[in-house]
Amino acid sequence: MHELPSEWLALCVAVTLLGARHGLDADHLAAIDGLTRHNRARNRAFARYCGALFSLGHGIVVIAIAIAVAAARTRWTPPGWLDLTGAWISIGFLSALGLANLFAVVRAAPGEPVAPVAMKTALLRPLQRAGRPYSVALVGALFAISFDTVSQAALFGFAATQFGGVQHGIVLGLLFTAGMAATDAANGLWISRLLARADTRVARASRVLGLAIAGVSLMVAGVGAAKLLSADFEQWSADKGTVLGVAVLVVVLGAFLAGTLRQPGVGKVVSE
Length: 272
Known about the structure:
Elements: H1 8-22, H2 26-41, H3 50-72, H4 80-107, H5 119-123, H6 133-143, H7 147-160, H8 166-195, H9 199-229, H10 231-237, H11 241-261
């Protein structure tokens, strides 16, 4: 689990950054990609807002968990073996995710768009056909039912008890949701705009995004493994969680810009 700051302002900043980084998880990117493509192909007006709707449903679950834990005013400390097992499972999934996206880019034919590869998306693929705003939000809520999201939300609730309880839990949940909504909404708008362009622009941008997902997944997995295997590295990185979060944001947002802005003469915007 993440170590959160003990000061309120620093905690608020850290939670917002965690939300923004959470919005860049491969499962979010892949789900929003599928939802946006499905609804845009059917000329639905809300297609460009699928990212925002997805994060709304996801955030409601996060806020509810944070409130419940803060209201209980109890902190459950998981046994060491469970925390360690969960950490290695997360590292394993991230490594597999990074390699799968890397191979997807390498294997794609020239000019062929590359769809992001994700774990939960494969299990919940039928839900990507959601064709109403409320059903898109429901997909986001279902994606929040996972070990990583639930444990993060519970952690915010625990942290809120240091400052008063439920009200602070609500604030932290809202800040996490705001950070996540910023990146999820931007992703939905970006995908929608790309789909309005020629295939060459879409293919290039999807490759850049695929490489970014692969790089970030492998980087986070590597850092997590290094913390578990080296006490010195864990001590050195103890206060650098925010730096890692910012680094992830910079890498993926940089990939968005690179995929969108490179070769501006290639591809024309078609009428929406």
